[in-house]
Specification:
The complex is a heterodimer of chains A (336) and B (263). Chain A is mainly α. Chain A has a single domain, classed as ABC transporter involved in vitamin B12 uptake, BtuC. Chain A is 76% helix and 1% strand. Chain A is built from 14 helices and two strands; from the N terminus they run H-E-E-H-H-H-H-H-H-H-H-H-H-H-H-H. In chain A, strands 1-2 form a two-stranded antiparallel sheet. In chain A, strand 1 and strand 2 form a beta hairpin. In chain A, helix 3 runs antiparallel to helix 11, helix 5 packs antiparallel against helix 11 and helix 8 packs antiparallel against helix 11. The longest helix of chain A has 35 residues. Chain A starts with a helix and ends in an 8-residue tail after the last helix. With 263 residues, chain B is an alpha/beta fold. Chain B has one domain: P-loop containing nucleotide triphosphate hydrolases (Rossmann fold, 3-Layer(aba) Sandwich), CATH 3.40.50.300. Classes of the chains: A mainly alpha (336), B alpha/beta (263). At the A-B interface, helix 9 and helix 10 of A face helix 2 and strand 6 of B.
């Protein structure tokens, strides 16, 4: 009995830590930036400097929250998809979502408008089209199980969109449109305002809440079809729901931030190292670490150099390095 | 005679991808608390039959009754509380520990947003003890041997507390000691009232424990009945399509293949 109480206390402490850690990082990051001078902003700026206060309230805070949501969404969606596809090397955007969003953004920049909202809407629309396209092709593939068919059609659809994107880049005006497209593809949050945050917030909140509530159930969906069925799981319906939630959060986040890679791959792995393979425990850890990773990466993107470093470059750099360490060190197994 | 817990009436089943029937007019009955072995060579349709008994696919024609009610009239939840499955093997891509994995067997009793509670945890511990692997409880699945994994799969199915337990080739990956260990557990479950149906291509495993045999070949039931009636050299030779002989040794039935390689 005493032991049980101790376990419960440890759980509460751990849960508090997972909630407080991102908040702490967020709070500190409010004071990190390049105004008034690089790196650290004294608290007094908030009270004495109107420009500084406006900058923090209208630009830095929405951007920080967005970066937290970005990391959280990609990490969680990655963890979910790895389980749904029973493959620890899956990334959240692989079902045509990322390449679709890139294509949609470029299309908008070329033919519609470069205004952020139009680009975001177009990117979201094509991310969803990419997913639906993958899904319907998968349904028509005549061999293999559900997972294999989706993976194959995801690869094919991504290739189609990246070819289309190539054509758009080739057609783009090299002085004005091309840099815009390339910059979008590299990923970044420099243009984020409260409006962008409000655009992604409802989808992200609903998607993440669904995933959080069904996190134990996720384990059942990582079993083979017949075993999951024997345990009373409505495999098709529950998979579709969790897949829709993951793709939705990925699509809106990507539409605002551009292509930000690796978060969805490595954070779930690190979370499993910490909390074990049980989704009931590693999904919350993924959410928390993802938020921290998102904020810190964006901190680096905004402060390291005079101009911005695209966020996608930072996350790829850190992500790939961590991945190499994980693959080569004996104590860190991929399967975990 | 007590009424049958499972009745299989002339079921035929064809997979979408082929035109050939995987099962053809299969008929038999299962008594509650009995052990039935579905015996036959590879490709006889044993796994397909188990999947149909589980309710995974509906039969193309014919019907399956569980407690005199057609399977399709049960909801998926109700079915999963009554029928458990131990698959032939299970690829587990993530490093669950044994307890985390076994407790997944409580899913039939939990709602979509529930998590297992203290009572579920107790049942999982009991299931793990029942198959004799308490010492493995905190080990992770990918580090287990084939025999240990088989016992973990069995424990997960026991956690489900099913009235009918289906096992697909439960002994085919096991060495002799592990095979007998598994069969002893099944025997104990039978005495506690669980109805057991398992498929096997190994006639000796069937003879060690089964009350009834369903003998299959190429999607059809060649014969079925009590062990003593159908476990004969003549019938087994027909099932396997090669000459075999049943030899009694020390009260056990040993099956010898008499066919020569040059045929």
């Amino acid at each position: 009995m005493h032991n049980k109480q101790l376990v419960k206390q440890r759980k509460v402490f751990f849960a508090l830590l997972l909630i407080l850690l991102p908040l702490l990082v967020l709070g500190i990051s409010v004071f990190i930036g390049r105004y008034p001078k690089p790196l650290f902003m004294p608290i007094s700026v908030l009270f004495n400097d109107e420009l500084g206060r406006n900058l923090v309230l209208n630009l830095r805070i929405p951007r920080l929250i967005t970066s937290a949501l970005l990391g959280m969404s990609l990490a969680t969606a990655g963890g979910v998809m790895q389980m749904l596809f029973r493959n620890p090397l899956v990334e959240p955007g692989f079902l045509g979502v990322t390449q679709g969003a890139g294509f949609g953004a470029a299309l908008s920049i070329l033919f519609l408008s470069t205004s952020p909202l139009v680009v975001e809407l177009s990117a979201t629309a094509f991310a969803v089209i990419g997913l639906l396209f993958s899904y319907f092709i998968a349904r028509r593939v005549r061999f293999g199980g559900w997972v294999l068919r989706l993976v194959l059609s995801g690869i094919a659809v991504s290739a189609l969109f990246s070819a289309g994107l190539g054509i758009l880049k080739y057609m783009a005006d090299p002085t004005s449109q091309l840099p815009e497209i390339v910059f979008w593809l590299l990923g970044g949050l420099w243009s984020v305002t409260w409006n962008d945050l409000l655009y992604i917030l409802p989808v992200v909140v609903i998607g993440l809440v669904i995933i959080f509530l069904m996190r134990w159930r996720l384990n059942l969906l990582s079993l083979s079809d017949e075993t999951a069925f024997s345990l009373g799981v409505s495999v098709g319906r529950e998979r579709a729901l969790l897949l829709a939630a993951s793709v939705a959060v990925t699509a809106v986040v990507v539409s605002v931030a551009g292509i930000v890679g690796w978060i969805g791959l490595i954070i779930p792995h690190i979370a499993r190292r910490i909390a074990g393979a049980n989704a009931a425990s590693f999904i919350p850890v993924s959410m928390s670490l993802g938020a921290v990773f998102g904020i810190v990466s964006d901190d680096l993107a905004r402060t390291l150099m005079m101009g911005e470093i695209p966020l996608g470059i930072i996350t790829s750099l850190i992500g790939a390095a961590v991945f190499i360490i994980m693959m080569t060190s004996r104590r860190m197994r991929i399967s975990r | 005679m007590t009424s049958a817990i499972l009745q299989v009436n002339a079921i035929t089943f064809t997979y979408n991808t082929t035109n050939q029937a995987a099962l053809n007019k299969v008929t038999f009955e299962i008594c509650p608390g009995s052990v039935t072995a579905i015996l036959g060579p590879n490709g006889a349709g044993k796994t397909t039959l188990l999947h149909l008994l589980l309710g995974l696919h509906p039969p193309t024609s014919g019907s399956i009754l569980l407690n005199e009610k057609p399977l399709k009239q049960y909801t998926r939840h109700e079915l999963s509380q009554r029928i458990g499955l131990v698959p032939q093997t299970e690829y587990v891509p993530f490093a669950y520990n044994v307890l985390e994995y076994v407790i997944l067997g409580r899913a039939p009793y939990l709602g979509p947003l529930d998590m297992p509670g203290d009572e579920d945890l107790r049942i999982a511990h009991d299931a793990i003890r029942e198959v004799g692997i308490s010492h493995l409880e905190s080990r992770v699945i990918p580090e287990l041997s084939g025999g240990e994994l088989q016992l973990v799969l069995l424990a997960r199915a026991l956690c489900q507390q099913p009235a009918v337990l289906l096992l697909d080739e439960p002994t085919s990956h096991l060495d002799l000691a592990n095979r007998n260990h598994t069969l002893r557990i099944l025997d104990r479950l039978r005495r506690n009232g669980t109805t057991i149906i398992f498929s096997t291509h190994d006639p000796e495993a069937a003879a060690l424990i089964a009350d009834h045999l369903v003998l299959m070949r190429a999607g059809e039931v060649l014969d079925s009945g009590d062990l003593d009636q159908v476990f004969t050299s003549e019938i087994l030779s027909r099932v396997y399509g090669t000459t075999v002989e049943v030899v009694p040794i020390n009260g056990l039935r040993v099956v010898k293949s008499m066919g020569r390689l040059e045929a």
